[in-house]
Structure formats: structure tokens, C-alpha cells
Amino acid sequence: MSFEIFNIVRGLHILAVIAWMAGMLFLPRLYAYDAEQAGKPEPLRAEMQVLLRQWQHRLLKIIVNPAMTATWVFGVWMILIHVYGVYGEGWAFLARPWMVAKLLAVIALSGWHGFLAGELKRIHAGTSTRSGRFWRMTNEIPFLIAIVAVLSVTVEWTLG
Question: What pTM was computed for the model?
Fold first, then answer.
């Protein structure tokens, strides 16, 4: 397998991550707007909630979920290229400190994704207890996780 294929896969991985991150940063904002509809007058509140919930559903199902899937697929593909392909490094590659940090960041981001998906079900069922303040305070979690992931890969730090 050539370096050219690896670079194409890496580019597709980066594009998928950008789409995933965009959705993960916007979805909590929509949840905040939804949570803040409770005090509004009824006709306006109901119309706005319907619209917000459509946006939430579409963002998760059309952008965030497929982007996460693509991120994982291209990421695993790059790992396999490192293990078996042009780099031929073997599985020990995954134990490098920077790679462990990157993988833990991806798992954390996937966990946050799962939390957001579960919360969408609670919001739509009317059982969510999260406030607009909660969603604003947690809105940057994906970005903080992304900092760890990106710096892990670009710096490739080691222990000692």
C-alpha cells in the first residue's frame, strides 16, 4: 500500500472529524435552546420546540452519527496501514503514549456522543431534567477532548 493511499485515508479521516466536531459542538446548543422554551408562551413555545427537535434529530442522524462512523472507519483503516501496510510497525504501535492518549480521547468523545444521543431521546420524551445552563457549561467538552487528540498526534509525545 502506498503513502498516497495513506494520505487519502488520513484526509478523509480529518474531514470526518471536522463534520463530527461541528455537530458535537452545535447539538448541545440546540438542547440549551430547547430547555429554555419552558417559560415561553404556549403557541410560540410549542412551535419552537417542534422546530428545535427536528433540527436536533436531523443533526444527529444526518451529520453527527455518519461523521462519527466515518471517523472510526478511516481511523481504524489508518491503524491497519500502520500495523500491516507501508509502515509495518506491528501492534506495538498502539502502545505508544501519544497513540494511547489519542485513542482514549476518541473513546471519550464517542462516550459524549452516546450521552448526547441518549439525551435526545429524553428531550423528545419530555423526561430530560437538564437546563439550558447545563448545556452551555458542557458545550465545549468535545473541543477540550479534541485538543488532547490533535496534540497527541501532532506532537507524538513520549514518556521519559
Answer: 0.89
Helices and strands (DSSP H and E) totals, the chain: 6, 0
Tens digit of each residue's pLDDT, the chain (160 residues)? 577 888 999 999 999 999 999 999 999 999 999 999 887 888 888 888 899 999 999 999 999 999 999 999 999 999 988 888 766 678 888 898 999 999 999 999 999 999 999 999 999 999 999 999 999 999 999 999 999 999 999 998 777 6
Distance (Å, rounded) from C-alpha 96 to C-alpha 109? 20
Instruction: Say if residue 63 is exposed, middle or buried (CB neighbours under 10 Å; 0-12, 13-18, 19+).
Output: middle
**One-letter identity of residue 33:** Y
CA nearest 151: which of 77, 99, 74, 80? 99
